[in-house]
Amino acid sequence: MNTKLRKTLKSSFIALAVLGLGVGSFFAWVSKARAAACVPGSGFGSMVRNDVSVTERGSYVVWVRMKVSNIQGASVGVEVIPSGGSPTCFTATSTSTSTWQWQNAGKVALTQSGNTLKLVGKENNVMVDRVIIIPEANKCTPSDTRKFEADKVIEPGDNCLSSDVTPTPTPTPTPTPTPTPTPT
């Protein structure tokens, strides 16, 4: 994976403490009056938003790491708005309770800058601690289950953000020994 792409993935690796509680200055609060286009205007929970930039325009996959405490099938609304484009709406739905799990929210076309990501709580007790936006060509399913720690910078360490290219060793030429003449 090239350095430029790795830096972009690192900047596209969005962390949330708990849906509705922004970490640092990543997210801006959005009032219910300015609800996401994807989610009904009433009966939903907190919303967070973040601006997203990528190095190349193209197709990306949005992954959400979530945990629910008591309702299997609880969900989070995900809205991605490319710069100058129409919203693409997804739902990330839990498949179990009490464990962190990655959910593929969907595929979206992004421009290099000016993209917006919104997450909207649809049920109570749904926690989101990470969102990863990776190029579709990466074809990776995240598996990192490390505990999120508030106020710490998250470095790429997930299998989808680690370099998947193993460098090929370059052979070092060994000099051919020159025979030393022996006295006769």
Layout of helices and strands:
Elements: H1 3-12, E1 13-15, E2 28-29, E3 47-52, E4 58-68, E5 75-81, E6 88-93, E7 101-110, E8 115-121, E9 126-135
Explain what this protein looks like in three dimensions.
It is a single chain. With 184 residues, this protein is mainly beta. The protein has a domain at 3-32 and 43-138: Galactose-binding domain-like (Jelly Rolls), CATH 2.60.120.260. Helix content is 5%, strand content 34%. The strands form 2 sheets. Strands 2-3-8-5-6 form a 5-stranded antiparallel sheet, with no helix packed on it. The chain has a 4-stranded antiparallel sheet with strand order 1-9-4-7. It is elongated, with a radius of gyration of 22 Å. The N and C termini lie far apart (60 Å).
Estimated radius of gyration: 22 Å
Sheet with most strands: strand arrangement: 2-3-8-5-6
Broad structural category: mainly beta
What is the assembly state of the chains in this entry? single chain
